[in-house]
Each structure stands twice: as C-alpha cells, then as structure tokens.
Amino acid sequence: MSVLVTGEAVALRVQPAHYAARALSALIDYVAYLIVYVALFVSAAWLLSALQVRFDLLMNAALILLTVFTTVAIPCAVETFSRGRSLGKLALGLRVVRADGGAISFRHALIRALLWQFEVLATGGGVAALVGLLSPSSRRLGDMLAGTLAVSERARAPRPEQIVLSPHLYGWIPQADVSPVPAGLHYRIVQFLTSASQRTPESRQERAIELAEELNAFVAPPPPPGTSPEMFLSAVIARSRWEYGQRQQRTEAAAARFRDRMGTLPHGLHLT
Hints:
Keywords: Membrane, Transmembrane, Transmembrane helix
Subcellular location: Membrane
Number of domains: 2
Order of helices and strands: EEHHHEHHHEEHHEH
InterPro entries: RDD
Protein name: RDD family protein
Membrane topology: Multi-pass membrane protein
Radius of gyration: 25 Å
C-alpha cells in the first residue's frame, strides 16, 4: 500500500499494480487483440474474394485499417466503457484510474492506446518493461502522459473513521435491496469517504456523483428525494458494515455452541 498525493493535495492510500501483474495483463490483452486481428483479417479477405475484388490492390490499406482498429480503436473503447478495465486487467483484478482515483475518460484511454503501439507492439514490450521497472508505481509512458495509474482492486479497502447516516434514510436503508457490491467499487467508495473532507467542494461532488452512478445498478429502490450522492454512498457502506458485523456475530455464536456441545461429550468419546 502506498500514498498517492493528487493535485488537490489529497492523500489517497492505493495499492499500485504489481510489475508482474501488469506484464501478465498486457500479455493477455495482446493475445486477445491478436485473435481479433486475425479473425477480422480472415473475414476481410473472404469478403473481398466473394466480391471478386483484387485483394492485392487493397492489401496495404486493409492492413493499416485493421491495425489501427484492433490496436487503438478497440482498446480505447474497451477501457472507456469499462472504466479502466480490459480482459487482462479483469482477470488479474486491476483497474486503470486517474491520478485523483476517479474513472478514466476517453481522452485518457486514447493516449494510453496510442502509446501502447510504441511501448508494447513496436518494441516487443521492451520500452514498457523498462519504464515500468524504473517507475515506483509500475507506470508506463502512456500512464505518465495520460495522468493515470494501474491499481489493484483486490487490496483491502481503508476503513473510514466514521460514517454518518442521514436521519431521513433510517427507514429506507433497512428495506433497500442491495446486491453484492463488487470489491473494486466498494474499495473506491470507501477510499472516497475516507478522503472526502480533504477534497475541494467541486471535486468532492463530482467524485460522489460518479461513484453513485456506478452504485445505482446494485441498489433498489432508489433513495428518497433529497438524498445527496455522498449520503447515498455512506448509507450503503454503513449497511454493508452492519451486515458484516451480523455475520461475524452469527459465526461466533455458532462456534460457541459447537464448543459447548463438545464440552458435554462423555469422557473418552472420540469423534471420527
């Protein structure tokens, strides 16, 4: 776990992706995009032959278009719509985030995709490996220029000092149907609640709205009118902590009952 200081002087406790995890993630992505490239190339060749077009006249143009599509357009779209995750990152529990811990946008994904061709494809991964090895957070050139960072979502989330539940949510939160929140999203929400007081009002509101939009898919019905995004996040995290405490109590009670039963067994009786 390391501390990332944002441009607003907010200290975020993050777990940067391990160097080996990033390398394996890049390899998985490379194989996936290579399969897509070969499939599209074969499909294009079949289509041109079916249309009785001389393939040699369009070969160079087709290769350029397919290369740009599979190495820039597809990776950029995947990271944009998945909020910083690709197939390799999904497999290893990684996510690319902004320097302030927020989800990346199209601009960040485009810069990373453009540099990926040079760092990984053109040099066989040599430049990315060298820069990542020298960087304390395993960042490559694309991360440095885009202002992003790859983090591990499987790290233990920091525990907020105190969660304040708004009184008007007392009746809603016990009745709300909360599906299991993904560990990565839970981690980012707790991280935000921990550092919210250090942010500027504009950054605090923007980040709360961003996280609340992600969390909406796991909660029904929506909170009552007048609930701010940060109130919504706090209520869901408070409920998850309460449910965790209830599970711990049930586990401890079951263990105590088991010990009591073991203590009442006749002397010399062994369980097999």
